[in-house]
Amino acid sequence: MASTHVDEFSFDHPQNHGHGKWRRLKLLKLEDEHYSTISRKFYRGWKHPNKTKPQIRAIFKILYPDASLKPFHRYRAYVLTSPALRGKVKNPVNEQLLFHGTNRSCKLVEDTGRILLCGLMDCNLCSVIRNSFDVKRCGSKNKFKRFGNGIYTTSCSSKADDYTYNADESAKLRVMVVSRVVVGNPLTRRTNATSLTEPPEGYHSVIGEPGIDLNYEETVVYDNDAIRPAFLIVYGDMPVVEGKTKIQSIIANLFKTPCQTVLLGCVREFLFKNPVADSSSSFPPNDQTLYYPAPGELIHLNVDMSSHIPLALSILGTLASHYPLGGSQKPQAPPPAAAPVAAPPNAPSASGQTNGTAAQPSAGSTAAPKPSNASITSNTGSNSIPGGLNPINPIALCDYCQLRPKHFDGSKTHPYCGKTCANKKLNGVAPSNGQANNVSANSGNCHFCHNRPKYSDGNKTHDYCSKACARSANGPQRRGTTSGSTNGRNASHSPLPTSQQASSTAICQAPGCQNPPHSAGQDYCSIAHKTLGETLCLMCLQAPKMANSHFCSQTCIDDAESKGPMILEVPQGHVTFKSVAEQFKASWRHTGSSCPPVRRVYKIVTPAQSLAAYNAYRAAVEARGQFVSSGRSAGNENRRWHGTKRSCNLGDKGHTQFCSNTSCSLCSIMRSSFDITLWGKKTGWGRFGKGIYTSSTSSKSNDYSQNDCKSPLKAILLNKVVVGKGCKLLQDNTTLTAPPAGFDSVLAEKGGSLNYDELVVYNNDAIRPSFLVMYEP
């Protein structure tokens, strides 16, 4: 009974018998519950897309004398008295397990024999384990303190890995601390607050959320007793072992194919989900560790893995059916369609571009005519038009829309890009001329957004993809009717007065829920469903999105990219809508004018090829500038505004299809991104030369947003921009065609020849449109 009142991380706990001052670390076995919990959090928290998940080699529990843990428990008791946490039953002090990366000057836990803490003054790891954290040492490594003088942790293990460092070059493994953190009532922020020395009144911590100044979450506490190290994760790549077994040779030969990377990824994922003992580890066999091979690394198999081979081969076979193997031969191009359908008079050019480049001719085809240059409005008078993508062979374009490539299923090239265009052609629906058309009742896509497939509940296919689109089209949904009635009747109802809504037949807006809202004027029946509705995948609108992604799964990501370029409406109330709308309002700085309300936000889906070029440029800038190590985003990526001309009603209610008007700069940019070669088409002048202009001030970009159509709303683009190392300028320099030597961009600051800031980049791949924002004039 006495043990129930002793902290499980204390030397005095019965489970920790034999450990004490000189034995702080307790090696966890694979079957230990803590091992499963920590390893799961580590892998789920590894969110950097360009960093391969490493292998966990071992996990240690960090033990303390009872006297060191008492201040931690006193702080927990103090937080528990907070009015903000009153009535909270589960995890009443909001205690979380969070990651922290630091430097290691010794070779602690490099193997199981190295478990004694060193006495080196510059070994932060041993110092943290021995004495816990000290807020006074904040900034001793990184001078930049995003949320002031505090102790920084994160739920993102790959972010903590950025701060993990081995001073001893002979150390092969990496070590990360997992701490118990009393988060209490946190203040959430998306922008920096470098002057903080304590949490604001009424709060116990600060959580930095991704969106504006951060790419990944951070949690900061300002009291030494709010945190205690709890676990130590040892991770890193497996050493290369000489020689191969017969099974290893078979697998190695199997991977000698053009789709080697895909197959290796499949097996790596399989092995991660089915951990086995690794006999080559430096840890004893009883202390089994997960084995997760790195890309290109020889896969080591032992007897225990032989039972998994049939399933692994089955997975490989499935992949091979989707990725035909051709040995060393180059894959043959899909055969062209026998008789391409002629494009309508108002359809785009054969290349589907307005970026000022002609399509590259392929064998047996002629080059597409070069489209006329569009007149584009720039943020500062310079022109920025889409481009930077390889043109598409016109013969390979869909026979109906002439915008997207024909679908190739692995053996046959179909005449259309997808079922939507095939159904439209079959039903005689004329191609869009830039104004959103009503979709045929037989079309497979949502009748409102036109991009997502209709929702099917197993018994019936509805007219809309989700409740969000049904509500946008018809108003709030009611019991007894469905948003997707297939009998042609409108499912909308006249909105009820507020006083009657509580007793109305309105239903919760969460996917699949038919319960009434919790109270009048609300959209959801519970907090759980409200949270679900605010974090839905923007493609399927049925499941919650993944962290640091707009989609719920790789399936939805692939589906969106295959249909791109396109726009997906973000439901009001969604966290993404709130993030974009808040940035629009916060950056409206023109005095004498109030910020107009944001009415619609659309996520711009960029094709994979265009994203790959942008990501490659960002990686190159990051390699030069090492911005992540100073607490900034990779490549110093930021979101910036750009206003331009709109010639169609794209973005208005129900209008989600790009037009083919070559003078519509908005559609051109969203279809193909920016093209610096078309700079100067409107004014012929740029304050900082021939570049692509954006601004952090939404009201400045609003000055360049122009409607060449009848619309109740204006449009503005929020873009991802790789700023890199910016050269700050106060005066005009109209002769620039590239950033000054040693810099990646130009940061034009107000105070000289400008009233509001500008950001100028000189490379097409330094920028991609990310969101379309519709607001009242």
From TrEMBL:
Q: State one Pfam family annotation.
A: PARP
For this protein, the record's InterPro entries field holds: Poly(ADP-ribose)pol_cat_dom (IPR012317)
Task: State a single Gene Ontology molecular function.
Answer: NAD+ poly-ADP-ribosyltransferase activity
Superkingdom to which the source organism belongs: Eukaryota
Q: Which PROSITE patterns match?
A: PARP_CATALYTIC
Question: Per the database record, which ranges form the PARP catalytic domain?
Answer: 11-244
Q: Which portions of the sequence form the region Disordered?
A: 326-385, 471-501
Q: Where is the composition biased (Polar residues)?
A: 351-365, 372-385, 479-501
Q: Output compositional bias ranges, type Pro residues.
A: 332-347
- What is this enzyme's class at the first EC digit? transferase
Q: What is its EC number?
A: 2.4.2.-
Which UniProt keywords are given for this protein, alphabetically ordered? Glycosyltransferase, NAD, Transferase
PANTHER family attached to this UniProt entry:
C2H2-LIKE ZINC FINGER PROTEIN, OS04G0690100 PROTEIN
- Name used for this protein in its record: Poly [ADP-ribose] polymerase
Organism source for this protein?
Panaeolus cyanescens
